[in-house]
Queue: 2 jobs
Job 1
Amino acid sequence: MEVLVANLSKRLRQRTAQQFVLLPVAAVVLSVSTSVCAQTAATNSGEKTLAPVLVIEKAIAPEGKDAVRATETGIGKGKQALRDIPQSITVVTEKLIDDRNLDTLKEALHNTAGISFLAAEGGEEDIRLRGFSLAATGDIFVDGMRDPAFYDRDTFNNDRIELLRGSASMLFGRGSTGGAVNQVSKQARAMDESSVDVTVGSHGYKRAVGDFNIQSGENAGLRITAMATKADSNGSGSSIDKKGIAANYRLGIGTQDEFSVGLYYLDNNNGMNYGLPWIRANGNETSNVGLMTNVDPNAYYGMASDYNKGGAKAATLTHTHRFDDGGELKTTARQGSYDRDQRASAVRRQPSNKDGTSCQTPFVTGSTTTRQTAVFGVLDDSTVLCRGTNNKIQDMQTTYVQSDYSKKFDALGVKHEMLTGIDYAHEKFTNYNATGTLVKANTTVGTPSNGVGVNEDLRVLSVGRTFDATALGLYVQDMVQVTPELKVLGGLRLDNFKGKYNAAAATAAAAAYNERSDTLLSKRLGVLYQPSSTTSFHASYGTSFNTSGDTYQYDNQTANTKPEGSVNYEIGAKIDSADKRFTTRLALFYAIKNNERNRDPDSAATQNLLSGKRHAAGFEIDVTGRLTKELEIYGSYAFTPIAKIDVGAPGSVAGVGEGAGTRSSLTPKHSGTVWATYQVTSQLRLGAGVNFRSEQTPNRNPGWAAPSFVTADVMAEYAFNDKFTLKANVTNVANKLYADALYTGHYIPGAGRVYALTASLKF
């Protein structure tokens, strides 16, 4: 971590002084001008004014470990009450993460409605929200700053996870139609409080998490969180071996000038289950395509030498200045380094002579312009499976700097809550080619985890392509309180994105170099009607865009491709119970993506990219909080009856694949989760819940759907005293076999039944 901090200092010095001086200038000028206007008005009136006194609240707000219900968020730039944001937000608190034993970001997102997963190459690389791609374009954030999408994230340092639904470009710049995910890190506090959690479970699962907060002064604290996890399997075939540590030091907590230094390190050396093929079983060519139902959810058919290594290293510096007039200027800089080294096997059925002799011949045949069919035949323990070679070796270096200014003031006879800022990003991405790998041995359905591997020392790496991008954004947003019940929000953001792409090749003539620059404007408009302290109704409109460089690559097609554009409309409500212990969120949404790229490795060479249009509409409801003193509930449900491709890819057939009239892939009509706990006695607490998804089609809609599923989880917790508790979890009680992440040629099964026992000690 010392090297990381040194690199950060070096990179910051290398930037021109002008770049970084400009970052907070707009915010500071605005702050000064507001203060001067107020002082001038007082002077002109002849009144004598006293020097302003800064009063800062030092009370410690309840943490997410105390409730599943949240009332505030920082995802909208600056801390705001959820009821004051005219857009839907679902919050997964630390208590819900602990109750349901959620170790990864992906597991936490399973506990939100409207989410589905593409079977990508590890990490949370392609998440779908409201039927639109989310994480592939970098819509995952840590404390409001972008977080590259190609490593497996752990929850050990998360205070909560916030899911903003709908267009987010006005807040974050380039982004998708679906929304944004913000991971809120644990912050140091001026108090002494520590805890240790130790978990053991099925499949050799062992996990230890420590959370240590030490008060180092009246307004200073150091917080260190650490994690180590090992398991033979995660319940769906992938081994786990990871460790992480994060540290945060805050000085001047709650005072006029607050400083924060954060360090983060995560190292993954996990296994890799690339997925299982879709099949037509029992020799019936007309039968429905389905899952390999005669295998255990924990079955693994990849090589013993397959792995998914990688991780993240980041250093973050933050300064917050609170002005005497109530304004606040927060400036943050982060230097990050991320890497992935993946060796995986796409499992396929050994083809018959009719279908070819190469393992790369997929279970699925056909093209994107026709309904695809799955290879059929009798499937039993003797069925031969072959393994493909799927390498992905990448790294990325990032520098992010952002400065945000917020201020509440009166002007023109109304109250304003203004937010303005500027942010800068520099991302350098490298993709490596791997050659010299060995041919992998076949296996059979009846012999999973057969222990066969290959010699990784024979792999030779070379640089395949590089991507160097910079982005600069300026934004301003104002919420005006027109009447005591009515608020109107408006925001604009201007972004400039530049990217340079290089692709290596055997000859200079075959090498590729492309670059592109885009300048775009994003808009946000919202209306809030709040007739009481327990009710808030909203309507909102927002735009978003995705540049061609969002996937960290250009080629001869994308270099000339303009950004995608999206629009989101939403009406909704947030309603609290009379005692404010329970909240219901309701929303109706309508989202449109215009000029959609139709890029996929199987079709990019022949299809134009800005050629599609799709839309989705639906209803969502979240319920969180306490119905009674003993009963606490968290629920999230989404109904998406409309998810339609309006204009398909060139050459596509109407109603087929990605053709016009087809339902969008990875968009179940029904999705959600319910979790409830009941305090039986002062010491015993019981919990139970379900996760569910209706049927959904894999990407490019091959003509069949993954079956719907419902899984159930249970929990029992016993508190021996206020320091020591013991908690037992059973996940997927019925050992349900289901397809969790989907791709055209294969699916990744969800975890089977998993037992876990956690001992927690507070001191």
Job 2
Amino acid sequence: MSLYRIEKHPILIPEPAELIDFFWKGRKLRAKKGETISSALFAHGERIFSYHYKDHAPQGIFCANGQCAQCLVLANGLPVKACMELVCSAMRVEPVDGLPELPRVSEPQNTRPIKEMSIPVLIIGGGPAGLSAAIELGKRGIETLLIDDKHRLGGKLVLQTHRFFGSTDMVYAGTRGIDIATKLENELRTFPSVRIWIQSTALAVFSDQKVGILVEGMRYVLVKPQALLVTAGAREKSLAFPGNTLPGVYGAGAFQTIVNRDLVRSSEKLFIVGGGNVGLIAGYHALQAGISVVGLVEALPECSGYKVHRDKLARFGVPIYTSHTILSAHGKDSVESVTIAKLDEKWKPIPGTERSFACDTILIAIGLDPVNEFYLKGREFGMTTFAAGDAEEIAEASAAIFSGKIKGLEVARALGHDVGEIKKEWYETAEILKSKPGKTDPEIYPSDESGVFPVLHCVQEIPCDPCANVCNQDLIHLHSTDIRCLPVFEAKEGEKGCTGCEKCVTICPGLAISLVDYRKDPEFPIVTLPHEFFKDSIEVGRLVTVLDTEGNTLGDVEVTGVRAIKINDRTVLLKLKAPRAIAKKIAGICVQDNKVTKPMGRYVARTTDDTVICRCERVTAGEIRALIKQGYRDINEIKAVTRACMGSCGAKACTALIHHLFREEGVPEKDIVDQPNRPLFMEVPLSTFAGCGDKNEVGRGRL
């Protein structure tokens, strides 16, 4: 069907889909029914969706979340966001070249009154926090409306193929995110008191305490809740550098959406900017999808994400450049290479350390901002308002699941329902799940070289306990009720020891446990490793390069077995025959050819003032910096002169970048005057507010 479709994946199972025809620039292509235009185009290798009206610069996907308009296309003559609009049979899609010309309306449009409704609870966002809260409300029979702007529930859970950290008892630790999404949705749909509107977007919270909702992209409804719970998640932060608007530069979350949700191989070779959990996990997901990861840069001296995530990439052969930054992206119509450099102690690039790498995609993963606009407006207008998950505080999805559960009970109590006492321990658990990584200990290998036992390569304090709960012999312990403490393997003399059941190896979310078995040959013990790639990619008898936790090469060893059984939930176990000297140090095998990670022969340089700050209006750093030097301190004035912050993203991406320019010019934050927020969360056709429109016409994501 397409070279770029992922027909086979080690974790995800592609489902059969009805195929439909659509047209791109007059050429007939095939799409899966129910997928977005953007993914259908990516599946055919199309990366350029439009050309900016100011300078004819090519534009591609950016957020894949409906919050900008970089992926604007014309579908049956109407401008729509390709990442939100679903493909229809025989749909004619064209790139936008300049300002789109709308079709003329020859007949008057029929209008109808806007529907209004009241509801005890409105939840904005159907991700982990929203689902968990709605379940608690559903258990108590409280009438609730849950809305989400995607075509399925689960939020970022539906993008996560890895097993989750956290508490086994509280938040499904040891279970894959995609499976947690299904569990939560299935449970929620058993409660008749909870209504669910998917493909429905909250537009604004108004002073009369009503919330405007665009239902299925066409119908506008005003909802007045007694209590509002905002679980809208987070948006990715943007980054300014020369070439940052080239097609192929986009967020790690957008990448996961295309690859893991829509099963489209969006690139061949990618480079990651940012060493938090989002960037590290995206790199791992890329490798699983057969995409080469050229490297990852992190400005800090160490990656800020979980060390086990960092270690997975390192031992699979991905170079990680800490204390480095991206200088520029290069390419004519899309990304062709990236240039990075080492940073000094003042966060300035060190001349002479520049290196360029060939790649076709650059993922930006430098952090998240909460989508909390609705929460702030609800509070401002005196509504009974709550926030949970990333909309309250940026943390892991496991924390969002638990905070949603607590907030669901708090909402019920605020409406006068008897929920009993919310345990103090729950709030303590919530704080533990939200916590940042703790101290890292040096790795110490067991001294024993007999029998069989696990080697725990986990050396950083993070909230996680699956290994301690799965051991049949109760040999792996956490010596504290705080699940952030490091697990310890303890075999007591005279008691039954490790049986080599491999459960701890399989369930570890960080793939950070190996099993070393000396029973058959003490000089060449068998090392068992978890492997979340294709079983048939590793053959018995083959030599593989093994690495330690940090990604250092230990040597080549023979594969003696490949075990894939249903109970292991898509985790393959590799059996390696290794010399005794290195057996306990083995933590992984290299899965990609190191040729793709080599720098180019020379680096490509570019100037900095042409860096685009406002993507929507193509306003550069040089234009804004010149105004700051003239004494401008009010972003409203900068907006009036340059049109920065006036684009379709609603200034969500560029405001923070303008603040960064102020800081670079030495302007204190207290002297900066921000522009007022847009009254609407996203752009909507005026006809929608008049009750016009036909449900059968193209309209989702329409501008």
